[in-house]
Amino acid sequence: MQHTKNSKSPPPILCLTGPTAAGKTGIALELACHHNYEIISVDSALVYKGLDIGSGKPDKQTLAEIPHHLVDIRDPAKPYSAAEFREDAIKAAEQILQAGKKPLLVGGTMLYYKVLRDGLARMPAANPEVRSQILDLANAQGWDAVHKRLQQVDPESAARIHPNDPQRLMRALEVYESSGKALTEHHRDENAQKNQLPDFMSNLVFIAVHPEQRSTLHTQIAERFQQMLEAGFIDEVKVLFERADLSYDLPAIRSVGYRQVWEYLDGQYDYQTMIDKGVAATRQLAKRQLTWLRSWPDLTRIEVEKEDESENIVKKCLKVHHQTSIK
Fold first, then answer.
1. Do 115 and 139 fall into the same domain?
2. Is there a single domain that holds both residue 160 and residue 273?
C-alpha cells in the first residue's frame, strides 16, 4: 500500500479478522468496552436489516451500548457493494478519530478488506438493459448458458466463477457486454487505477485470530449453527422468505446459513439436510477466509487454543497496536 507520509506518521488502525466462528466479536466488544475503540463492521451480512441471528449480529442491547458502524444500514432487497463499503468505512473511521476514539475494523469479509486496502478498478456502472438481457438468457436456457457465454468472452473469469453463482456471473458478463472489455482486463488495470487511502487511514494493522487446530474450528462452527437454530434462526428467515420483494438471487439471501434455511423453507430438502448443508457451507466459508489470510501481507496471527482466552487475545491485540504506534 502506498501513501504520502506527513512528518508525523498516521496512527495505526487495527483490523481484526479471521475465519467465521473464531471469536472475533467477543474480542472486539472487549476492546470497545474497556480500551476506547469503536467498531466498524467488515461483514457483508451485518449490513442488512433483519439478518440478525444467522449473521452473528450483536443483540440490540449491545448495539445500543457499544457504537457499531456499518451494521443494519441496508434493507436486504438492496444489494450493498464492496465499493460502498470502502467509502462508508473511510467516513466512519474519520468520524471516530475526530471524536477522540480509535477505529477498530472487525469482520471476516476479506474482499471488503482488500478493496479498502488496495482500492478498486474503475468498472462500468450497472447497466439495467444489459442485465435484463442476461436475465432473459438465464430464464430461457439456465445459468449454465450464461456461464458458457462468459467462457467465450472472458475465459479467465469463467474459470474462476462457478456456474451456480448468478450474482458474479451476471456482473462479469455485464461488464463485458457494457464495455467490450473483459472483467479480467479491468482487474489487470487495477494497479494503475487504485484509489489512495486518506493519510489518516493509511496505517492499517491486520490481526487474524483463529484456532490452532482446524478440527476445533469445525466443532465451533457446528455448535454455533445449532445455537442459531435454537435461537430462532428458521423463524427469522421465514420473515424474509415471506416478503414478496426478496428472492434467492439477492446477496443477502445467498449469505451462508440464510441460503440453506431459505432452500429448506422452499421445500428443496429436509431439516437434517438443511443442517448438514448449512454447516458444510460455513466450513467452506472458513476455508476460503483462511486461504485469503495465508497470502495476506504483514499479518499478525494469534492462534486461539481455547474459547475462554479472550482476555489473553485482547492483551495481544493491544500489544500489537502499541508496538505499531511507537515505530
1. no
2. no
**Which strands, in side-by-side order, build the sheet including 299-304?**
68-69, 37-41, 102-106, 13-17, 204-211, 299-304
Angle between helices 258-265 and 233-241 (to 10 degrees): 70
Cell of 107: 469482520
Pseudo-torsion of CA 288, 114, 123, 163, nearest 10°? Answer: 0
Residue range of the domain that includes 64: 13-120+204-325
Residues of the chain with pLDDT under 50: 1-7, 192
CA distance from start to end of the chain:
17
Residue 184 within a domain: yes
Domain boundary pick from 152, 170, 192: 192
pLDDT at 189: 66
Q: What's the pTM?
A: 0.80
Could you give the number of structural domains in the chain?
2
